[in-house]
Write a structure and sequence with these properties.
The strands form five sheets. Strands 12, 13, 14, 15, 17, 20 and 22 form a seven-stranded mixed beta sheet that branches. A five-stranded parallel beta sheet has the order 2-1-3-4-5, with helices on both faces. A five-stranded antiparallel beta sheet has the order 19-18-21-16-23, with no helix packed on it. The longest helix has 20 residues. The protein is about 30% helix and about 30% strand. It contains nine helices and 23 strands. By secondary structure, the chain is of the alpha/beta class.
Length: about 400
Amino acid sequence: MNILITGAKGFVGRNLAENLKNVRDGKNRTRPALRIDKIYEYDIDSSAEELDAYCKDCDFVFHLAGVNRPKDPKEFYEGNFGFASTLLRTLKKHNNKCPVMLSSSIQATLQGRFGASEYGLSKKAGEDLFFDYAAETGAKALVYRFPNLVGKWVRPNYNSAVGTFCHNIANDLPITVNDPSVELEMLFIDDLIDEMFDALEGKEHRCEFDGVRTVLTENGRYCAAPITHKATLGRIVGLLRAFHDQPQTLLMPAIPDGSFEKKLYSMYLSYLPKEKVAFDLKMNADDRGSFTELLKTADHGQFSVNISKPGITKGQHWHNSKWEFFIVVSGHGLIQERKIGTDEVIEFEVTGERIRAVHMLPGYVHNIINLSETENLVTLMWANEIFDPNRPDTFGEKV
């Protein structure tokens, strides 16, 4: 399959092209039904001759090119209607009836707060052009009305408030939020790419519109990515500030699979300046070694790393309800545990050569001993709760 992408250097185009290459090159094997041969990347600096050749040879068109921030409103029609006419006319010239996808906007509904904007009107004209083309030629037209598109590589200080917030907060720049209660509907780029792959496989999702609300329906005239997220500006900014502070707090918020928080965090990280990609952690060091907290989670405890010098014993305490995993990743050690009120000691010899996880049981005194005379013992530790100095649940006693 040969694929033509117009607007290939834009936000959606770049993401789509790179992900198509992953399928083409066998790096992404989650779409076994797709065989990608050539990817034609067309943009504003491409030639008419290239467009002609691409339209002759392509088997699917993603028409992503458009104008959304022109100096002159007339450019809306030139970019969103005029070039679409050229594209479809060139396909007809070669009698190429391959499927064509159009990137439109929810503003083309001309409903609610969008009203009759020049941008919305130009997008609506482009939609009508594609539907007329499909009726005339019998080609399959897939018209998508996108809400706010967000994700890695979206251009800040342009047409994405979320992109601007991510960029500015990551770079310690000020932001302005006039009304924190304003709600945005967002389509993340990776969810959009999944839908584009579905479209290539002939499994696009169909919809109709109730005002500005997308209603998925099997025989809808329009198409839509089925997964979007809604959040207020206040919530978005609050999460971004928590992400910004994570290197200091070490606190990772809950990020369930598929959640808005998880996707927004990934987007935020793509804006980090070089000097923030790595950050120091506080090592609590003494003559026995060191203990460093690595990560705290909102609901799944915390991770730490413990380094014990040769011959050193650490621990010698017990907990009521707190429990831990000790995972030795380097060195040679011995873990001992004794149930409170008994004399029986259970022991586990541990080494970085055979990585094991050992439970530190509630109600058991426990320790870890470095058996080496020359090497440090390095242990990754996980506790089921974040350490609370006001309620440490830790009581000293020797095994």
